[in-house]
Structure formats: structure tokens, C-alpha cells
Amino acid sequence: MPATLAAETLQAFVSAKRRFHLGDFRPNAVEGGRFSEAVLRILEWQTTGGYTPLADPKFKADTVITRLGQLPAGSFPESVRLHLPRAVRVVYDIRNKRNTAHLSDGIDPSMQDASIVIAVLDWILAELVRLYHSVSAAEAQQIIEALVRREVPMIQEFDGKPRILKTLGHADHMLVLLYWWGDRPLSRKLLNSWLPVNMRKNPSRVLRALHDDYLITLADDAAHITQLGLRSVEERRLIEPL
Fold first, then answer.
1. Among 51, 66, 91, 209, which is disulfide-ready with 44 (CB 3.0 to 4.6 Å)?
2. CA distances, 168 to each of 194, 199, 203, 219, 239 (Å)
3. pLDDT at 100 over 50
4. pLDDT, tens digit (0-9, with 9 covering 90-100), for 103-142
5. Is the pLDDT assigned to residue 99 strictly greater than 70?
6. H/E element holding 46?
């Protein structure tokens, strides 16, 4: 796809996610509007060969969504005609029609709304990777899994390495990293390289203890968190910031 649209989509995605994980749930901070308009231009480009310039004030999201939905069945993938435009519609409706100043129940829906917007943005970006990937199917699958992996607000990446911004015991530290990595095996060597220096002694003993408690499984020099491990992290609120 055009590099300008790809860059705009990713920049808007990162901006919305960063705001969300910093606890800024204001509609104007995590609205997804900029992201959605970039995505609609991608679909516009896919179906017409051109797209409305990003700075053009005449761009109408409703018009593009309606036109995409009217394309003949089979002319383009259903995601292009229906699923992606409808997902964008969810984001737009929350942004434009949830007037928190006039809700009568007295409950601020900002976090609720921001949570669904971020979840929809995750799905949209993963779907774009699936549709337009220029790498092997296996690599695209890995990218998608990384995009939709569980969010851990207290983990921040530095030079590609996750750091837990909270003091945890050795076993819980490893378990949270595996939780963040998601439902796929993680090399024990890579996991060990992510640990603080004072935790890098005897990692095998700690992993075996987690394995014996059915919180992870060990195979082929890799660790893989189990459903029981995922539930343990969530029920004990290990991923919540201090």
C-alpha cells in the first residue's frame, strides 16, 4: 500500500495505544479518528486505485463506508467491503455520538469507551497485516499474534526488551513476561535475557517449579504459559501497576 498511508496508520495506532496505557482515557486522546481515516483511505486506494489526500477537508468517512458496502459481492474480500468499514464505524460512533456531558446516569464512560476503541484498533491493524502482508504467511501470523497479544500496562520496551516496572518475585516476574508474550512458546534463552541480572541465576529451577504447578509447560528448550498460568496472573492482579 502507499507508504504515506501505512505510516499515518501506524503513527495514529501507536499514539492512541500510548495514551491508553498511560491512563489517559479522554475521548480526544484515545478516539481512533485519525487511525480510522487512514484505514478508510487504504480501502479507498484498494478499491479505486487512488485515495483522498490526507489533508483534504472534503474527505467524508460516511461516504466511503457506504460506497464500500455497496460494492458487488466477490469484487473484493469481505473484509474490505464489510468487516473493516463496519469496525471503523464502531470507532466513529463512539467518538461522535457518545456525548459524555449529556449522559443522565452520572457515570463517566471514558475508560469503557477507550477500551473498546483500542480493542477494535488492534483487530483492524491485524486484519490489514493479514490482507496486505508482503512477507511469508508464517511471518504475517507472528506479526498478528504480536499485535493482539495481551496488554500489560506496567511493561515498557527498551531497545526491544520488555522491562517490568514493578517489583515482583522471581517466579512471578517470569510468569508475567510469559503472559505478556502470549499463547506461544518463548525461548528460555530469550526469556532469561529479559530478566534483571540478579534473577539470571538458576532460571531452570524456577521454570521447573512453575511447570510442576501447571502454570507453564516446558518443551524443546522453550516455555509456554498455560491457561492456568494466565488465570493466575489475572486473578492475583500481577499485571496491574502499583
1. 51
2. 14, 11, 15, 25, 10
3. no
4. 556 666 778 888 888 889 988 988 898 888 877 877 777 7
5. no
6. helix 33-48
The residue behind cell 464500500 is: 68
Q: How many CB atoms lie within 10 A of CB 100?
A: 12
Q: How far apart are CA 92 and CA 45, in angstroms?
A: 20
| Mean of pLDDT over the chain | 86
The domains of the chain are located at: 3-147, 155-235
Are the C-beta atoms of 91 and 123 separated by less than 8 Å?
A: no
Give Cα separations from 115 to 45, 122, 129 (angstroms): 29, 11, 22
Q: Among all chains, which residue has been given the C-alpha cell 460516511?
A: 62
CATH class of 155-235: mainly alpha
Cβ 32 vs Cβ 120: under 8 Å: yes
- DSSP string across 59-115: --HHHHHHHHHTSPTTSS-HIIIIIHHHHHHHHHHHHHH--GGG-TT----HHHHHH
CB 211, CB 151: distance < 8 Å = no
pLDDT in tens, 178-218: 998 887 899 999 999 999 999 998 899 999 999 999 999 99
Alpha carbon separation from 157 to 30, 154, 162, 176, 180 (Å, rounded)? 21, 10, 4, 14, 11
